[in-house]
Amino acid sequence: MTGVWVSIVKCILKVKVAGTNLVSLSKGEVGNGMDIRFWLDPWACNDTLKERIPTLAALNTRNCRFGSLLCGMCDQHEESIGHLLLECEVAMEIWQKIGDWCKEQPLFFFSTTDLFKAHNVEGLGIKEKSVLKGIVFITCWCIWKARNDLRFANITINVDRIFNDIRSIGFLWYRNRGKHRSIMWNDWCGFNLR
Ligand SMILES: [Zn+2]
């Protein structure tokens, strides 16, 4: 584990909840026999993180019903986590932009598990792969945030704005948390990492 992940882990180790260390509240179930898969193995509650994201479809299975289950971003398909992050036309446009930006082949995913393999591609250096991995996480977060902004604040979906948010948050993360102070915005926008 290197770079920003070391910083993140250091911060988590210091966090306390009601006087109890946060880490002691989490648990690890070794799902694949090697390590804990952030998305697919339970590590904080009894459910996996994938199951806990409160999409309309996930809430419906818990008997929480709020009318239509259609995705608000496209109004065409049921809002599951797979649809929201991978299959929705909004998400697909964003992933295309991410692929273009990171000089990657167009990014297509068949399952949420594929999100965590997106950075393992031919032609990218170790640093670029590591950064692309972080960008994938940021992209998931920004799509989820845009979904919530639409649902709860009626803020219209705008793919270019979401993409710009991803680049801006990624720049701050890489420059400050990753301690790459010399990176300039233009280099970042060209995915020219130094
Ligand atoms: Zn949709």
How would you explain this protein's 3D organization?
The chain is mainly alpha-helical and 194 residues long. The protein folds into two domains: 1-52, no CATH class; 53-189, no CATH class. The chain has helices at 3-14, 22-25, 49-52, 56-61, 81-87, 89-101, 126-153, 159-177, 185-189, and strands at 16-17, 20-21. It has a two-stranded antiparallel sheet. The model is unreliable at 25-33 (pLDDT under 50). It binds zinc ion.
Q: What ligands does this structure carry?
A: zinc ion
Number of helices: 9
Proportion in β-strands: under 5%
Low-confidence stretches: 25-33
- The strand order across the widest sheet is 1-2
Largest sheet: 2 strands, antiparallel
Mean pLDDT: 79
Question: How many structural domains in the coordinates?
Answer: 2
Distance between the termini: 20 Å
What global shape is seen? globular
Which assembly state applies to the chains in this document? single chain
Task: Give the fraction of residues assigned to helices.
Answer: 40-55%
Question: Element order, helices and strands?
Answer: HEEHHHHHHHH
User: Which class do the helix and strand fractions yield?
Assistant: mainly alpha
Q: Mind telling me the C-alpha Rg?
A: 18 Å
The count of DSSP E runs of length 2 or more, i.e. the number of strands, is: 2
